[in-house]
Design a protein that fits this description.
Radius of gyration: 17 Å
Strand order of the largest sheet: 3-2-1-9-10
Number of strands: 10
Number of helices: 8
CATH superfamily: Metallo-dependent phosphatases
CATH architecture: 4-Layer Sandwich
Strand content: 15-25%
Structural class: alpha/beta
CATH class: Alpha Beta
CATH topology: Purple Acid Phosphatase, chain A, domain 2
Distance between the termini: 42 Å
Shape: globular
């Protein structure tokens, strides 16, 4: 049986990540892909990196995983950089941009944000149709072995909100966020099931101890604690 758990946007939230890993194992899903943003926003980035390395078959980089590698004068970003080791930085720098997988005759692509950049944010309900369809494009960063073939299904993260859209080009699926969900306060991931002749997609929501997470963040002195608290406890985006 081919089932793949697809997680994204862990953001240093060890409490949520452990709950999701436990749920994946309970469902006897043996393959897990991570779509980036292992670090930042939450307090325990290094621990999350270790858990991802142990539990995920494939991992790609997100925008936080890229920006944390550069020196910065931003005190907020610098706090998170101080929480990770040089080995963590080396691991993040080794992560690929995307994953391509063929399953049941379909090309499945896994990205963090878009085919062009980890930093290009595409929100279907607020974008022109052409921009949404560009999620199925090939690009220099994708480096497709067959540039004339485009993906039938695209999974991505970045938005911290789970949804599925069907277009003429194919299916666009955002798997939501494990550690910083902004639609519901439960952790989110998706399951790609290729066990039969047709690939199917299932969303999974996992409750976790949010109070424990925010208490840990406060004890560690995380910057902008009040904003993190509102995101974890109420799914209220700090920049809304």
């Amino acid at each position: 049986m081919t089932k793949i758990a697809i997680i994204s946007d862990v953001h240093g939230n060890t409490t949520a990540l452990k709950a999701v890993i436990k749920d994946i194992k309970m469902r006897k899903i043996e393959r897990t892909f991570c779509l980036g943003d292992l670090i930042g926003k939450g307090p325990r980035s290094s621990e999350c990196i270790t858990l991802i390395q142990v539990n995920c078959e494939k991992v790609i980089r997100g925008n936080w995983d890229v920006l944390i590698q550069s020196e910065t004068d931003n005190e907020y970003i610098q706090w998170f950089r101080n929480q990770i080791s040089n080995e963590d930085i080396q691991y993040l720098s080794s992560l690929p941009f995307h994953i391509d997988l063929e399953l049941n005759g379909q090309l499945i692509r896994f990205l963090h944000a878009s085919p062009r950049s980890e930093f290009e944010r595409i929100i279907p309900d607020f974008e022109p149709l052409e921009k949404c369809l560009s999620m199925f494009d090939n690009s220099e960063k994708v480096n497709s072995t067959n540039p004339d073939r485009r993906p039938d299904i695209v999974f991505y993260g970045d938005l911290h909100t789970a949804f599925l859209k069907t277009y003429k080009n194919g299916i666009l699926c955002n798997v939501g966020s494990v550690g910083n969900s902004l639609d519901l306060t439960t952790a989110s991931y998706a399951v790609l099931d290729g066990s039969y002749s047709t690939n199917t997609i299932q969303f999974v929501r996992v409750p976790y101890n949010q109070r424990e997470e925010v208490n840990t963040a406060k004890a560690m002195g995380i910057p902008s604690y009040d904003k993190y608290y509102n995101e974890i406890m109420f799914a209220k985006y700090r920049n809304a």
